[in-house]
Amino acid sequence: MLDKPDASDAKVSPALLARFAAIVGEKNAITDPQAQEPYLVEMRNLFRGHTPVVLRPSSVDQVSQILKLANETATPIVPQGGNTGLVGGQIPLHNEIVLSLNRLDRIREVDATSNTLTCEAGVTLQRAREAAAAVDRLYPQVLPSDGTCTIGGNLSTNAGGTAAIAYGIARSHVLGIEVVLADGRVLNNLNKLKKDNTGYDLKNLFIGAEGTLGIITAAVLRLVPRPRSIETAFAGVPSVEAALELLGIATEQTSGVTSFEIMTRAGIELVLEYGAGTRDPLASKHSWYVLVEMSSQQRDGLREVMEDVLAQGAERGLVTDATIADSLEQGKAFWRIRDLFSEVQTRAGGSIKEDISVPVAAVPAFIREANSAVAALIPGARPVPFGHLGDGNIHYNVSQPTGADKDEFLKRWGDVNEVVFAVVKKYGGSISAEHGIGLLKRDLLPSVKDPVAIDLMRNLKRMLDPKGILNPGKVI
To answer: Is the whole model's pTM more than 0.70, yes or no?
Structure first.
């Protein structure tokens, strides 16, 4: 954990703090250390920050005033949404001011005819999905942290999720955006148009930029028709190769495959041990499992499609056992097993977590070669790969050897990065599929990114944030 100030820590005078506090009101300028605590530690407990104040604006105008003052005084700002990020991008490590967007939580409009939802950055993903459901529409971003993570944070990190195979990642869902720039100007690009060829698509500069180029305060999100039927199946498969072939069968049978998740038995065992109220989804144990979800606008016929896919898989030796959820509750129980994978690994001791992507066809070879590399590096270490086989995004996590010292194991994070990322590079993949760069992977970025791309990123940063006040030290 990084938790100590150093010589580069920002200094903010009491007089300047008072000016910032006056913008949001004393009640929403948090200086009490205990009250600040939820804003200063990220979910994996890897980074602990410190700040003179947490500002909680309630309007875009207040965000604009804060950034005008910050720009005028060269005061660094770290924007934060639901604090569910996993790479340290939202943590103030050098005494920067935290700008929490949770109070910007209005849903400004739901337009069922245009299939759009306009909301502010502090709206949680769960509320956005509920607002869409209220008009019989679906906002198709699906993340386990939906009750906490916010739309602004999702867009700033270009979040992925379990439904990306069908609907794409966060960037795919955005039609328009509102951003406050480093100098306090507001870029108002909140249009609901599916077709707009009036020059550069500026919104995509800020989506995935992790608050380093501007602060997203609102967005127009694309909605889709709400499915009339959903089927969820849990299947045991003998190998990743078999899972990949089953994915091919499923996508040939229907365009309605909305999730296709892969899990190893080692992870299932951890869920059963540390996940309260869970039980083995199948009667016998299998080396690998897939969680398949299909949806359709038709009320009937989807279950038969799922049954046919699993039957074909069984005939080809790809499926050794399977069950289809008979109720909504059983489907939720299947998903709970998948959603607990990352959490239970931490409960079982040290867990080094990687978020990578490779071409879908390369997933079996990647897992096989990464497992071998990790075993050679740390004998006894237990790889627990899982994730979104349908889009090539694998959460390649490594649990400590049984009985090993947790702290000593976690010191090998950089060593594990090196051997795993070498395999990722071999297959033309990415070292960050959906979690972002933040601080955790910042120093690795130049070694895997095209030099021209790095140069352009640095030039954009200098142009949009010449004083370097927006989330300094993150991404690049």
So the answer is: yes
